[in-house]
Design brief:
Chain A: This is ATP-binding cassette domain-containing protein. Chain A: Residues 13-266 form the ABC transporter domain. Chain A: It is a peripheral membrane protein. The complex is a heterodimer of chains A (343) and B (267). With 343 residues, chain A is α/β, with parallel strands linked by helices. Chain A has helices at 3-8, 30-39, 72-79, 101-107, 124-134, 139-153, 168-180, 198-213, 226-232, 250-257, 302-312, 325-334; strands spanning 13-26, 42-56, 61-65, 87-92, 108-112, 186-190, 218-222, 235-240, 243-249, 261-267, 280-286, 289-294, 315-322. Chain A has two domains: 3-254, Rossmann fold (3-Layer(aba) Sandwich); 261-322. Chain A has twelve helices and 13 strands. In chain A, the strands form three sheets. In chain A, strands 5-6-7-3-8-9 form a six-stranded mixed β-sheet, sandwiched between helices. In chain A, strands 11-12-10-13 form a four-stranded antiparallel β-sheet, with helices on one face. The two termini of chain A are 42 Å apart. By secondary structure, chain B is an all-alpha fold. Chain B has one domain. Chain B contains twelve helices and two strands; from the N terminus they run αααββααααααααα. Chain B has a two-stranded antiparallel ribbon with strand order 1-2. Chain B is globular. Chain B starts with a helix and ends with a helix. The mean pLDDT of chain B is 87. Chains A and B meet through helix 4, strand 5 and helix 5 of A and helix 2 and helix 12 of B.
Chain lengths: 343, 267
């Protein structure tokens, strides 16, 4: 490690003003539009990520959250070195990933959702062996690590099966093992548990917790599963429309966006036309029940809202739900600024 | 050097084939049927004539059967193994090629080497059956055999790069199915797999000389059957080597440009 690397090691991931702009062709509607696009294409710049800054300390698990299209995957691709940023700087374990892909590759592991890096036609163990050779992992070390992963993820019951015959849960567990076989300091996980059943999800969470707490790996996780966030992450970075909205602990997020409340009421007359009230949104209907929630920055407190609802409607039942993390995140996404700029 | 340790990547496609017995059986059946049909066809064509296009019957049959055997070097089923560049682009798994300490071009080369060695095993097995059965003639001399082996090696090297260019197209077009169909047809036609090139008009042979396909198969097979004499071998080998160098430089340039495309196409 160079002097500069050592200086950076205070943070395993360091992101400063990272931006990425894509130039895309506008597809005009209709046959004529398609022809015009072919002859005279109109190019626009789309800012996928705009000047985000954050750090991740060694041995920390950070959840990078945001709605679909927020820029999470683009950010991860810049940090893994696949994509070069338009501006800004990123360092991962002291390496600028997009300037030195091969050196960076030895420091990181990555799982991209359901996209497997395993060889489809081969038994899983063959994939592990190929990766061992590619990463030049000593055999004894490889065997020991495989045993550790087997203890945690129960791989041995299916690791002689060809990848094409594995279930999703089995395959993702193998992909997690494959991503960590070379003992990377930093791990990027882009929605690793998407589509899994609850039992496998819990097993994967336990595995990740072990990797962070016992092995000291730094993990950057993107997910839409708030249970996963609550169980694994102490700190969250929230991005939306390519911009950083919040960088803080779960408690801080709850304090900032957690004024979210829900009032669940049952109108006395089931045929009552229920409408939103000033600052109060009609979130959904659940059978005879109607669920209200705050709307906009000037939303009333839960007590003010209760007063308004009771004054407006005749009710047979009423309950106040404490906002869970999913509600908090929903509120955060809604309040998180305008859409990505198009130039 | 990760590339030295990563030799197992060369086993990917052959192992995938061996783990699928129906594919091995299908390959065996296809090769047998092709050899029998091609040998019968050329024997039939020569039934009424002794020498055509400067080639006797046994030479023509030898050329055609060797062309069938050599085509096994190219026809492995990457698609079923979800291991084509097009599929990696489609599924977004191409990103993993860029997340490893082994550069994608070296991984591709290793994998291709394994495929060709596996194909060579099939071709040699076929040759070992066809030679004692009298379907193919032995080479004219040890020198011819040596020059043929060298020329076949260079030809496969050229073919590797030609296939690579078609695969690299996927970084821009996402799909290369049509290009691949054209390539296979052009390679079969212009390299003399369908019929030796000396049966085609002079202008056609001259035109195909500007393309790399002759260098892949026509040259080594012509050397084997004696259609190209040993005295002209050096020139032909030099042309093959020139194609290897030119295509290596071209594909290197494409790899560099492809690296900039991987993200926008790879999802």
């Amino acid at each position: 490690m160079t002097r500069s690397d050592a200086k950076q090691a205070a943070h395993h991931i360091e992101v400063r003003g990272l931006s990425r702009t894509f130039r895309t062709t506008v597809r005009r509607p209709g046959f004529g539009g398609a022809l015009r696009s072919l002859v005279n294409p109109e190019r626009v710049a789309k800012h996928a990520v705009s000047g985000i800054t954050f750090d991740v300390a060694p041995g920390e698990l950070l959840a990078l959250l945001g709605p679909n299209g927020a820029g999470k995957s683009t950010t991860i691709k810049m940090l893994t070195g696949i994509l070069t940023p338009t501006s800004g700087v990123a360092r991962v374990a002291g390496v600028v990933p997009y300037e030195d892909r091969q050196r960076n590759a030895r420091n990181i592991g990555a799982v991209f959702g359901q996209r497997t890096q395993l060889w489809w036609d081969l038994p899983v163990r063959e994939s592990f062996s190929i990766l061992r050779d590619i990463y030049e992992v000593p055999r004894a070390e490889h065997t020991a690590r495989l045993k550790e992963f087997d203890d945690l993820l129960e791989l041995s019951s299916f690791w002689d099966t060809r990848v094409r015959h594995l279930s999703l849960g089995q395959r993702v567990r193998c992909d997690l093992a494959a991503a960590l076989l070379h003992d990377p300091q930093v791990v990027f996980l882009d929605e690793p548990t998407i589509g899994m059943d609850v039992v496998v999800k819990e097993q994967v969470r336990e595995f990740l917790r072990h990797q962070v707490e016992e092995r000291g790996r730094t993990v950057l996780l993107t997910t839409h599963d708030m249970t996963e966030v609550e169980r694994l992450a102490e700190r969250v970075v929230l991005i939306n429309h390519g911009r950083l909205v919040l960088d803080g602990t779960l408690d801080e997020i709850r304090r900032t966006f957690g004024s979210t409340w829900q009032v669940r009421v049952t109108p006395a007359d089931p045929h009552t036309e229920v409408a939103p009230l000033p600052g109060i949104a009609l979130l959904r209907r659940e059978g005879p029940q109607v669920v209200f929630g705050p709307e906009g920055p000037g939303a009333p407190t839960v007590h003010q809202a209760l007063k308004q609802i009771v004054e407006r409607y005749e009710l047979t039942d009423l309950a106040i739900d404490e906002a869970d993390l999913e509600d908090v995140m929903r509120a955060a996404y809604v309040q998180a600024g305008p859409g990505a700029d198009e130039v | 050097m990760a590339v030295l340790h990563a030799w197992r990547a060369a086993r990917v496609t052959p192992l995938g084939e061996l783990h699928s017995p129906p594919r091995v059986t299908a390959a065996l059946l296809r090769l047998t049927v092709q050899v029998v049909l091609v040998a019968s066809l050329w024997r039939g064509l020569y039934a009424a004539t002794g020498t055509t296009g400067g080639l006797g019957r046994d030479q023509a049959v030898t050329y055609a059967v060797l062309a069938v055997l050599a085509s096994r070097l190219r026809e492995l089923d990457q698609y079923t193994g979800r291991d084509t560049v097009m599929q990696h682009m489609h599924y977004g798994t191409i990103v993993y090629w860029y997340l490893r300490p082994l550069p994608p071009q070296r991984y591709y080369a290793l994998r291709s080497l394994g495929e060709r060695l596996y194909g060579l095993a099939w071709a040699l097995a076929g040759y070992a059956v066809c030679l004692p059965a009298g379907v193919v003639e032995p080479p004219g001399s040890a020198a011819v055999a040596g020059v043929f082996a060298l020329s076949l090696l260079l030809g496969q090297w050229v073919l590797h790069y030609v296939m690579l260019v078609i695969d690299q197209l996927c970084f821009w077009t996402l799909r290369n199915g049509a290009a691949l169909l054209i390539l296979v047809f052009a390679q079969n036609l212009l390299s003399g797999v369908y019929a030796p090139l000396w049966f085609f008009p002079h202008w056609f042979v001259t035109m195909s000389g500007f393309l790399p396909f002759q260098a892949t198969l026509s040259v080594p097979l012509s050397l084997y059957v004696g259609r190209i004499p040993l005295s002209e071998a050096a020139v032909q080998l030099a042309v093959q080597a020139a194609w290897v160098v030119a295509l290596a430089l071209f594909t290197r340039l494409l790899w560099r440009r492809a690296a900039r495309r991987v993200i926008s196409q790879g999802g």
